[in-house]
Amino acid sequence: MAKKRRKPAKRGRRPACDFLARLRPYALAFFIFSMPIFFLPTVTEYGYSKVIYALVWISGLLALWGAEGLVRGRLPLRPTPLWPLLAALVVASLASLAGDTPWCVVLQSTVLILYFGFLYFLVANSVGQGRELALLLAALVGAGVVLGLHGLLQYLGLVLGGPGKGLNALISTLGNRNYLGGFLAYIFFPGLALLPSLRATWARALALVGVGFVLAMALFVNQTGVRLALLGGWGLLAVGAGFWQVGFSLRRDWPWWLGAAGIAAAALGATLGWPGLLSWLGLVLLGGAAWALGYALRRWRWAWLPTLAASLLGLILILPPTTPLAMVREAWERNAGRVRAWDWWVGYEMWQDYPLTGVGLGGYKIFFVPYKPEFLASPQGQAYAFPIARAAQAHNEYVQVAAELGLMGVVALVAGMVLLGIGVWRRLSAQGEPPRRLELLLLLAGVATTFLHAGVSFPWHLPASSLAFVVTLGCLFSSRYAPAKERVLEISGRLLPTAVGLVVGLGLVVSVIAVRDLVSNGLLLAGQNALFLGNAHLARTHLERAVQLDFCPRHSLYWLGLAQLRAGDLAGAQETLARAFTRYRAEPIYMYLASLDIELGNLSRARELLTELLASRPARDLELSARYLLAVVELREGDVPAAMARLEELLELAPDYPEALVLLGDIARGELRFEDARDYYQRALQVLEGKIRRLERKLQRPLTLKERGAVLDELERLRRTHQKVQESLDSLP
Q1: N or C, where is the chain less crowded by C-beta within 10 Å?
Q2: Beta bridge partners of 74
Q3: Helix/strand/coil for 655
């Protein structure tokens, strides 16, 4: 009897849908691994290329997810308990348009919040089993290992790094060793979650070595904030382990956890020597006390008070005979605490002016210099009698949220943290398996590390750090740990192609704008280099094109103004720099605008700019230049005695300031006091010749293109001044 021939299976939607469903976690993992590593040498800032890379990749991942839904005919979506946080942050961001920050700056920053929110939903809806969790966490740890190795090679001088040697060169592809240390700290505890989620021995061993190296490098960068954040994460993990009873998981996998403890001790010992080993013993004791507190809270909920009292008594007994507050103050001062406090007080002044909506998302860096005088005039500012450079970030995410988004942003953030706590509590309560509870606690410790470090740094303003935070948060609220009754939305019918079309359309628009901005930034770098080489015409060509391509030009406008100034187009330079001034208020732009206003006769505006700059207590060279230009303003206004008094005051601060000597010589010559004029000119020539010799010697040393360009520019200016002074001296009777 002949066998029946099996009919070929019809090609339906299922195979394609399964392929897309399998592809999505791998595409997501590749993005998670590659984004922190990615950078381009043709851009002006390390994080900028990562932002563009993230926008394009997340757009592609959303399109892939949408295609999967179209093939399946429906798209299940877990909104998770944190969806109101994203909506609230976007609303607060758009409401901050009521502040003074330009709309394009607010919109750019809002899109970044929205896109990292999309990434959170992608992760939360992609992790369903241990395989997906291990894949994404391995991608994070792998990126950390590559970044750490790169930084270590920079430290050893084998790979080009940051300026200087040793730790100063250790910047990896993140641009700063503090950024590197923060990123590694944020992924350490989530990386440990690989141990209970993996099954293969070789995979666990590899994960253990990778996580150990991540910890060692996080400690090696020597950042106090990073170490304190790790300490806080360890304490929370220990309390949670005591409360939620994860002992079974620890006993089952005890060789691996013992190996993790050994690697942690080795990392502390290698980076801190004997103090590190003693610190390890202290961490064990602290963890034991924290575990006991968690256990007591679970068994006897009233016992937290005596446990806490006993812990405080133990601290008092082991502390050296100095006041704890004095110790904290000393550590604060040693770690640039006063500088951080300055930044926070300036943020507070911004919030006072815009308590509800803030000064505008992305506006802190724009309005830092204008708000410095307001703070310095306050009672708190009286203690800060030293100059501090302009800060692009507040070095405290909570202060910056209040400054930029006002009360609306603070309420959204606090409510989001409450939702996070409630959601994690429910997930831990719903887990019957100790290994999964341990995974949740490790992920929570990673999130807590970021929250703690955000009190002295700005992880949510760094693309790689934001990635680590969002991926960890997405894993924490994924379906792997979801309670049975967690809500699931299903997009289907006519709504599905509409929703997918809107998301894909948004992705295309954002990607095109992002790529144009990336090209613009490359042209900005080319224009800067041309300007450093003295080719103002080529620089102007590059920078004009950069301004055209940039969605919200700021730095490109500033550099275009400098190129126009170098080319002799004073009116064009003034117009361009005035436009840049609304979006980029660094101290040098005050000086350039004031100089142009003086040349073009707008003396009142020049005085206003210089007065505001001096009130902000700038660096010494800027302060001296501002005082000199104010004397020029008074001289142009005809108030010769006031100009002379200001110049004499300037010479008391800087006796070798050549421009003041030259101007006093010009005033004396105009008043026919030729001997005084000759004395001033001769003193000015001596100072100028000394500066010229120093700059010529500096040119003999290795310099970057930017440094060489600045030296050549200053040298040319001094030589012109020297020639002018010599001619004035020769013309005296």
Answers
A1: N
A2: 492
A3: coil
pLDDT tens digits for range 622-655 = 999 999 999 999 999 888 889 899 989 999 998 8
Q: Which residue has the tokens 């926008």?
A: 55
The residues with which 492 forms a beta bridge, in sequence order, are: 74
Binning the chain into helix, strand and coil, the percentages to the nearest 5 are 75, 0, 20
CA distance 662 to 7: 99
Structure confidence by residue, pLDDT tens digits, 215-232: 989 989 988 889 889 988
> In degrees rounded to 5, what are phi and psi of residue 74?
-160, 155
Whole-prediction pTM: 0.89
Contact partners, residue 270, CB within 8 Å, separation at least 6: 216, 276
Residue 726's nearest CA partner among 685, 692, 683, 669 is 685
C-alpha distance from residue 478 to each of 129, 136, 225, 661 (Å): 9, 12, 29, 70
Of the CA atoms within 13 Å of residue 109, those in its CB half-sphere come to 26
CA separation for the pair 375, 356 (Å, rounded): 20
CATH number of 508-585: 1.25.40.10
615 φψ region: left (φ > 0), alpha (ψ -120 to 50), beta (else)? alpha
Q: What are the φ and ψ backbone dihedral angles of 492, each rounded to 5 degrees?
A: -150, -175
Residue type, 702: P
Q: Of 63, 76, 71, nearest to 14 (Cα)? A: 71
User: How far is residue 681 from each of residues 677, 685, 716, 725, measured CA to CA in Å?
Assistant: 6, 6, 19, 6
Q: Show me where the domains of the chain are located.
A: 13-304+338-492, 508-585, 655-733
- How many C-beta atoms lie closer than 10 Å to residue 404's C-beta? 30
Q: Which residues pair with 75 in a beta bridge?
A: 491
What is the Cα–Cα distance from 379 to 340, expressed in whole angstroms?
17
